[in-house]
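At this stage, I wrote out one protein's amino acid sequence and its C-alpha cells, and that material follows here:
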Amino acid sequence: MSLDRVCVEPSILYFGTPVVLISTENEDGTANLAPMSSAWWLGWRCMLGLSANSRTTENLLRAGSCVLNLPSVNEVSAVDRLARLTGSDPVPESKRARGYRHEARKFEAAGLTPLASLTVAPPRVLECPVQMEAVLADWHGVGEDSPWKGGLMAIEVRILRVHVDPEILMDGHPNRIDPDKWRPLIMSFQKFYGLASGQVHGSRLGAIPEASYRSPDMDRARSTEA
C-alpha cells in the first residue's frame, strides 16, 4: 500500500456500517419497514441517522417505538427489494428524484414475515437473526447550521428486548453473541458486503469481560412488561 495520501471530496462518507431494517407502526395500525445503515450502539442505546421527512421518522416520533432488525448476509436479497421504496405518499421530491416509489406493503414487497413483538407495537422481522425492540429516548436535528437544516435527524432509542437466533450465541454463554458466528450485512458506499471469516488480529479489548460494560438500561428494560 502506498504511503501517499491525497485530498478528495466524496459525496458520501459511508465507509461501512451494519444494515438495519427498522419496523414502525403507521397511523392506521399497519406496519412500515425501511432499510438504513446510519446506526451505531452504546450500551443498550442506539443512534439512528434518518431523513426528517421519511415515514419511519414520522412514525417513530409520533408513536415512540420501533424494532431494529439486523439482517445477516443471507437476507440481502430481501433487503435489496426494499431499496428505493418509501411508505410516504406522496413521495418526497428528494426521493422521487432518486427513483423511489410509494409502497404501503413493505413486508410483502420484501418477502419478509412480520412477527409480534413483546413490548412494542411494531412487528419484528422473523427472518432477521437479531431483533431489538426499542423506544424513543431523544432526538435532535443534524446539519442545522447548513442549507440542509430541518432535513436530517439523529434519533436516540433505548432497547427493551433483544431477540437472537440461538445459532449465533457463544457456546456456554447464553447472553453473548459469538462474533465468529454472526455475519452482519454491511453497507459500504451504497453496496452490500459481508465480513470475512475469522479475526484479522488478536484484540486487547477482547480480554475485557463483556459484563464490565453492562448498561443500567438492562435493569430498566427488565421492568418493562412483556
